[in-house]
Amino acid sequence: MSLERMVPEGIFRLDGPLAETVELDYQVCAHCGFRLMHVLPPTRKTFPLPVLYCPICGLRQDDSGFTPGKALTYEAKLEALRRWLQQQGLDEETLREQYHLELGQFFEPHVARRS
Question: With bands split at pLDDT 50, 70 and 90, how would you rate the model's confidence at 24?
Answer without folding.
Answer: confident
